Amino acid sequence: QSDLIILHDRQCTFVEFKWKKGKKSPDQEAFTKRVSEMGYETLEWRTLQECEDWIVKTLMESSNELQSTKS
Asked: What are the CB-based long-range contacts (under 8 Å, 24+) for 32-35?
């Protein structure tokens, strides 16, 4: 299982937090492979900055899409 599942803009993203030198277990690797093959986004964040960057990028993309549909 993932540490975090994010539902956004009709999409689903699975996130693993691996701080410093953490590694995915074989079960986590298998889960990541399975959901990726199903077309879902899977991410591994090692820093809070990676998390923040993804959130900002995703919000900006959503905002741009909303603005373009209003034009």
From this structure: 35/2
Q: Could you tell me if residue 62 is left (phi over 0), alpha (psi between -120 and 50 degrees) or otherwise beta?
A: alpha
So what's the pLDDT on residue 5? 95
DSSP-assigned states of every residue in 20-60: TT----HHHHHHHHHHHHTT-EEEEE-SHHHHHHHHHHHHH
The rounded distance, in Å, linking the Cα atoms of 65 and 36 is 24
What gap in Å lies between CA 68 and CA 45, rounded to an integer?
Answer: 30
| Residue 66 pLDDT level (bands cut at 50, 70, 90) | low
Span 15-25, pLDDT tens digits: 999 987 888 99
